[in-house]
Amino acid sequence: MTRPAARGGRASADRLARLLNLVPYLLARPGIEIAEAAGDLGVTERQLREDLELLWVCGLPGYGPGDLIDMAFDGDRVTITYDAGIDRPLRLTPDEALALVVALRMLAETPGVANREAVERALVKIENAAGDLVAAPVEVRLPGETRRVRELRAAVERRRALRITYYTAARDESTERIIDPLRMLMVEGRAYVEAWCRRAEAVRLFRADRIDAVTELDEPAVVPPQARPHDLSDGVFRPSPDLPLITLRIGRGERWITEYYPCERVAADGEQWLVSLRVTDLGWARRFVLGLGPDVTVVAPAELAEQVRAQAVAALDAYATPACPADPAGAAVTQ
Question: Which CA distances in Å does 69 have to 24, 59, 174?
Answer without folding.
Answer: 12, 5, 54
